[in-house]
Amino acid sequence: MKSNAQRRPPLQARRPAYRSLEGWALGMLIEHHAIRECEHHGHAVDRSDPDARNRAREAAWNQPFPGASPEECQAAIDEVLRGIGDSCPDC
Ligand SMILES: [Zn+2]
Fold first, then answer.
1. Domain limits of the chain?
2. Helix ranges, 1-91 (H)
3. Does the pLDDT of residue 6 top 90, yes or no?
4. Mean pLDDT within 15-23
5. How many angstroms separate the Cα of 20 from the Cα of each of 29, 30, 32, 61?
6. d(CA 64, CA 11)
7. Distance 86 CA to ligand 1 centre (A)
8. Residues 79 and 35 sit within 8 Å (Cβ to Cβ)
9. How remote is the CA of residue 85 from the centroid of ligand 1, in Å?
10. Is 31 buried (19+), middle (13-18) or exposed (0-12) by CB count in 10 A?
């Protein structure tokens, strides 16, 4: 007799669930092409694109990280950008 194991429905959202505000901010910046990841080392690299930054900040304001205020989300975006250089440290 086969046990009829119930299959779980597929995950509804394909977006990763970010555990921290910082990780979320990083994801927003990547999504809006404000930063990229070095294909060789995986380091985040600032693309120095003001329009992309503005889009990421706007998206952070309009769709803030759950549990955080829009102000906190924009601050997190700025904070992440401050910590990222415009070239990969290992390239
Ligand atoms: Zn690199």
1. 21-82
2. 21-31, 50-62, 70-82
3. no
4. 81
5. 14, 15, 19, 17
6. 22
7. 11
8. no
9. 12
10. middle
